[in-house]
């Protein structure tokens, strides 16, 4: 067998205790040597090709899906399906995201059995089928099956597969590459919000769906063929578990899950509601689509920037700060935004920080649980987001129906506040783990180190350091 490359493998040699019956003063030279391999990502190379592929997949999954906000505004304004109510339309948009998250374990199993390429191609076919058949919808339940379930399933096969692959190619540039790839959702949303708004006005909603279908088909097909999972350098890789529900009993996983649930409730409601909010203050359909497009432009600009800063200043600290900033923007700018220029300012600024969870979840989870547990833990986190994603826009629209947009705006801001608080506690947990391991290595008292809740104090939330 060919020796592993020194660029990919660090060899660590350690002495073990002598076997039973052996002399206690046996010399180290005679002790058996155990060689272990630590997998070192190349931190570049073909990884940048994979980054571009994941970027394009984000453009044609999340980016295309964000155009639903413009399509939704059209359906609400023109009563296309007279028997449908606002709540049903809101659930359709949430259903596409929740379905993507629900099939996380299935996607993990498909990758293990069919391989990366076949899994990605399956998702590509489902996305095209969903968008193309949605163009022929004549009843609202047709949209539940196409735009909701079928598109969400296809997005799960493509997006979840691509997201789990990318961190394996990078180490010190992991957050930057993930943020760069995640910016595709923003640029895709920018382009497809503008395209959808313009094409709906000129050619109709049915043609809009068909244009989205063929654009997604071509791009996702090429990306699926180019995107490669990195071969495992370890000669005997550990078997990968599909799901471990016991992870949800661990404090760190609970905190990440609550961060995801709360910010997803805010993020989905914000990105789908903004075009309709524009109409509620007297703006046109096209102006509403421009507001949605600027929100997505903010996503495109903010995600790689946040990723780059996270690598430098902390992969938990920076997402915590950006999540809190999003709540502040909702309260300070969105609530008084009753004019077109102020709404565009909010859309751009909020877009840079509102999608922090999806651009940083892979690096955060990698730091918390490690690369080997990333796929299964990510799938588990996705399952916890299924119900919130389904009802996020429905909750916001029901608030709008009762008391106008003010209640929904405050609610969305509170969701981001809750997410930031969870990351603040997770940050202190990370410091605790670092102190516990350092104490165990230095003094051999790792087992006697106090538990987290004994260690935790309010001042621990404000420790200075890069985590």
What does this structure look like?
The protein is mainly α and 467 residues long. It has two domains: 9-39, no CATH class; 46-232 and 239-428, Growth Hormone, Chain: A, CATH 1.20.1250. Helices cover 72% and strands 3% of the residues. The chain contains 17 helices and two strands. Helix 7 (174-202) packs antiparallel against helix 8. The two termini are 39 Å apart. It is found in: Membrane. It comes from Aspergillus ibericus CBS 121593. Residues 250-467 form the Major facilitator superfamily (MFS) profile domain.
Instruction: Give me the CATH fold name of the largest domain.
Output: Growth Hormone, Chain: A
Q: What is the beta-strand fraction?
A: under 5%
CATH class of the largest domain: Mainly Alpha
Record field, number of beta strands: 2
Low-confidence runs of at least 5 consecutive residues: 1-37
Enumerate the strands of the largest sheet in spatial order, edge to edge or round the barrel: 1-2
Q: On the 0-100 scale, what is the average pLDDT?
A: 82
Total tally of structural domains = 2
The rough form would be described as globular
Q: What integer value in Å does the Rg equal? A: 24 Å
Secondary structure layout plus pairing:
Elements: E1 9-15, E2 33-39, H1 46-66, H2 68-78, H3 86-102, H4 104-114, H5 116-134, H6 140-165, H7 174-202, H8 205-226, H9 251-280, H10 285-313, H11 317-334, H12 340-354, H13 356-369, H14 374-384, H15 386-403, H16 405-443, H17 452-455
Antiparallel strand pairs: 1-2
Helix pairs in contact: 1-6, 1-7, 1-8, 2-3, 2-7, 2-9, 2-10, 3-6, 3-14, 3-15, 4-5, 4-6, 5-6, 5-8, 7-8, 7-10, 7-13, 9-10, 9-12, 9-13, 9-14, 9-15, 9-16, 10-11, 10-12, 11-12, 11-16, 15-16
Transmembrane segments: 89-107, 119-138, 144-166, 178-195, 207-227, 248-270, 290-309, 316-337, 343-365, 377-400, 406-426
Keywords: Membrane, Transmembrane, Transmembrane helix
Domain Major facilitator superfamily (MFS) profile: 250-467
């Amino acid at each position: 067998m060919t020796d592993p490359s020194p660029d990919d493998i660090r060899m660590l040699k350690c002495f073990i205790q002598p076997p039973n019956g052996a002399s206690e003063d046996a010399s180290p030279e005679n002790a058996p040597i155990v060689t272990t391999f630590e997998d070192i990502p190349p931190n570049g190379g073909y990884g940048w090709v994979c980054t571009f592929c994941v970027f394009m997949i984000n453009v044609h999954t999340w980016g295309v899906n964000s155009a639903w906000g413009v399509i939704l505004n059209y359906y609400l304004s023109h009563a296309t399906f007279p028997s449908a109510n606002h709540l049903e339309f809101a659930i359709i948009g949430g259903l596409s995201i929740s379905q993507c998250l629900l099939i996380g374990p299935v996607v993990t199993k498909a990758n293990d059995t069919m391989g990366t390429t076949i899994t990605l191609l399956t998702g590509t076919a489902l996305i095209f089928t969903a968008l193309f058949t949605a163009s022929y919808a004549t009843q609202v339940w047709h949209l539940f099956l196409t735009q909701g379930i079928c598109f969400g399933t296809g997005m799960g096969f493509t997006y979840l597969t691509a997201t789990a692959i990318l961190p394996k190619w990078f180490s010190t540039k992991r957050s930057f590459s993930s943020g760069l790839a995640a910016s595709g959702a923003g640029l895709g949303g920018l382009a497809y919000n503008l395209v959808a708004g313009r094409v709906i006005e000129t050619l109709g909603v049915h043609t809009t769906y068909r244009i989205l279908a063929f654009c997604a088909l071509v791009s996702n097909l090429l990306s699926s063929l180019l995107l490669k999972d990195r071969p495992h350098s370890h000669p005997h890789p550990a078997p990968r578990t599909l799901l471990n529900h016991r992870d949800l009993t661990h404090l760190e996983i609970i905190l990440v899950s609550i961060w995801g649930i709360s910010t997803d409730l805010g993020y989905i409601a914000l990105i789908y509601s903004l075009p309709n909010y524009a109409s509620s203050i007297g703006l046109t359909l096209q102006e509403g689509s421009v507001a949605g497009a600027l929100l997505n432009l903010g996503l495109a600009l903010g995600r790689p920037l946040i990723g780059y800063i996270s690598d430098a200043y902390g992969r938990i600290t920076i997402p915590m700060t950006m999540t809190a900033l999003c709540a502040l923007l909702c309260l300070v700018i969105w609530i008084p935004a009753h004019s077109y220029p102020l709404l565009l300012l909010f859309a751009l600024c909020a877009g840079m920080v509102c999608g922090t969870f999806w651009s940083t979840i892979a690096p955060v989870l990698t730091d918390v649980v490690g690369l080997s547990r990333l796929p299964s833990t990510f799938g588990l986190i996705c399952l916890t987001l299924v119900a919130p994603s389904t009802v996020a826009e429905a909750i916001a629209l029901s608030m709008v129906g009762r008391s106008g947009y003010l209640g929904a705006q405050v609610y969305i801001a509170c969701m981001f506040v809750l997410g930031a608080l969870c990351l603040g506690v997770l940050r202190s947990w990370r410091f605790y783990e670092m102190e516990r391991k350092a104490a165990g290595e230095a003094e051999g008292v790792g087992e006697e180190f106090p538990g987290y809740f004994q260690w935790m104090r309010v001042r621990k939330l404000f420790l200075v350091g890069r985590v």
